[in-house]
Amino acid sequence: MSSKSSEHAMNLAEFGVDYISIAKVLGAFALAYASFTLAGKLSDAGPRPNIHIQSEAVNRTVDMPNFGQALGRVAESFRPIPTETVHEPITTVTDQPTKSMEVPEALRRVAESFKPIPHEPTKITFENTKSPEPVPVPEINIPKPEIPRTLTESEQFAQKAEAALADKDYKTYTWNFLRARGYSEITSAAIMGNVDGESNFSPIPVPTTYKYGALFGGGTIFQHIGGRYQQFQSMYPNGTYSFKDQLDFGCYELEEGKYQDVLKTMQATDDLSIAVRIFQDKYEKPSPQHANFARRERSAFKYLEQFSDQK
Q1: Three-state secondary structure along 163-188?
Q2: pLDDT tens, 254-267?
Q3: What is the CA radius of gyration of the chain?
Q4: Which CATH number is 184's domain given?
Q5: Most-buried pick from 4, 224, 230, 260 (CB within 10 A)?
Q6: 181 and 35 within one domain
């Protein structure tokens, strides 16, 4: 034990109290001192009264002046002991002299130290493994919706012609059949006016006979006779000689036969009367007593008004 600690023990032993009792005494002393101060009974010049403090551990009167001196000696014992700070010089000892280095070179060496070390990639192999077989995907055939195609003008005429032929409406059939082949309204009406004058659209062929030494009568709706009628028979050997066959043969002569110039001339004019006259004189070639141009012309205007596409 140090000398200061022994001194603390001796001072406390003089009053025969322990640490707990001291704490209680100090608290009582502080309370009493505060009470005297507030009451104005304490004075620096007057005598200091003795305070009787009853303690559980100390059962005797404490003389305040002596007790204060004892407390002072205790407080002095707790002051920190000053120590002297010794500063020793720091010396650096190196085995080799310091070598100067340029900054860029130093940085380069530092950067090189961080370069990754090349290494071979690890190969992982799986033994006894098989690639899964692809799952077949069933084909789904989705039918594409049929978009109705817009018919051309020629196809529309052809549809109307077929419907009229089924109903044996030969005049409607003739108009739409000719228009479907590209004939103008003037040309179609002129041909129909001549057919009306030759056979009145009757498909029954008239047998040709000789009367008074001359060929009388003819076949087809165009009243073909002689070699032209024979050519018609050879082109349609089935012997039915339908209205469709007879109109087909007339178009064949105008489009591919020796009457192509007749069709071109009629297509070039917009005068119906001229077109009727051209077809009568250049294609039909009737005798003067059977020509009846007025009827042919009148029928042509009637059919143009009835079937014109503009209506």
Answers
A1: HHHHCCCHHHHHHHHHHHCCCCHHHH
A2: 999 999 999 999 99
A3: 72
A4: 1.10.530.10
A5: 224
A6: no
